[in-house]
Design brief:
5 helices; 7-stranded mixed β-sheet; alpha+beta; DNA-binding; 3-stranded antiparallel β-sheet; homodimer
Amino acid sequence: MYSSSANVSERQAAPPSLAISTVIFALRPSESSGRPTLWLPLVRRIREPFKGLWALPGGPLSHSESLQDAASRNLRETTGLAPSYLEQLYAFGGLHRSPTQRVVSIVYWALVRPTEAALADESENVRWFRADRLGELAFDHNAIVEYALWRLRNKLAYGSVAYHLLGEYFTLAQVREVYEAVLDRELDPANFRRQLKSTPEIEETGEYLQGGKHRPPRLYRFTGRPGLDPDNRSTL
Amino acid sequence: MYSSSANVSERQAAPPSLAISTVIFALRPSESSGRPTLWLPLVRRIREPFKGLWALPGGPLSHSESLQDAASRNLRETTGLAPSYLEQLYAFGGLHRSPTQRVVSIVYWALVRPTEAALADESENVRWFRADRLGELAFDHNAIVEYALWRLRNKLAYGSVAYHLLGEYFTLAQVREVYEAVLDRELDPANFRRQLKSTPEIEETGEYLQGGKHRPPRLYRFTGRPGLDPDNRSTL
DNA sequence: ATTAGTTTTGGTCAAAGTGACCATAACTAG
DNA sequence: CTAGTTATGGTCACTTTGACCAAAACTAAT
């Protein structure tokens, strides 16, 4: 089935190239309202096709690393970020994704804590954008980001993913702000609090967040592992 | 980044091969109880590695077809089946999946209606197995089937997938049998019926299933499209 | 024809969960 | 000391869910 030492007849036999890309989400305060919003880092294309346009960070799959390793290496190299959550999103393999050649991209999505995101590399060719205000991206990357957002919203509803956008300690209001930013609608503080308090994975600490303008909120901690991807089967 | 006409220095430069495989589910009556159970077709390995073991149907990705097209072509060629549902499962890319070379497999999962499954090709090298009684499969295919089963159970709970394992017309008891077979637990007939009747996608027909031993049940029809994968974006 | 057996179908009831909303506690800023 | 704001706890009506009951409708056997 898999021809080992093939008769490389110029055009037909060339296999599709395999690339890894990553959609990276982090919360940053909006310039206007100051409330946390979803941002993601993009890299500028420095060659054709789509030269000059912004694109998801990515690169080819090296021969000696797993898919997930390739994704986190790429994350580190292009943006200097260490993700708190990393999961495979989808394999995109349409015929005309790139005008010059056939490329199959295995795309991951990642969450980064605010502390990490603050010290991320930003340069001429790497810049952060609000997830709801991207321009036209290279390749099919607009559609990919849309799908990643859809997945993020879904996973959020299921439960365990919001805390990877926050630090180790957080207030319940901060969790609510994550939900409001991602789902883009306001939630009742009292009802939201009731739901969180009923989930056993959120642990009350004895500490309170000081320095605010109003009543100091209690700090909580998240205990519990994320889902069970094939990649994370070790954590079973 | 992607070396076009590369200096093919024997070992390192060879990119990982890209393959497509499919986990195909269908309902068949159990030999013992006669009640519907989950089955899936496997193909026998006729060469090394894992020669003689059973494996998921699959093959290389041709240069001129999309991932989904490759999956359905492979489905048709190896088993003669036309699926009623087809969705990408996951891209498996561990380093040691195949002992002889690095292979990245993009795996799809499919559902087949009973009528289709009945006239499926079965031969010396293609055979159906009960999903809960597979032996040791080639490569990491046991883990892949496990993950596919997990996905099937999840999608079932969400809603729209059970009907693709049934014919166009069905009784509510048949839907319940699908759930019982996949989730492997009994469900209360009255409560289950109440839930189904509250979903607008299930349409009552004027017809009844005749020929049974007891009160003839009403026939229903499913109206409504499956989920919104990137592959199925056309159906938005 | 009558009866027993089985499935289909509709219903009740209590428990649990959800959304809308009210009220008090606890802090800061003036 | 007061006004303003957030944190926190609570009520109430409505919906959903699981356990269970009972009548309807058919077949098979007597």
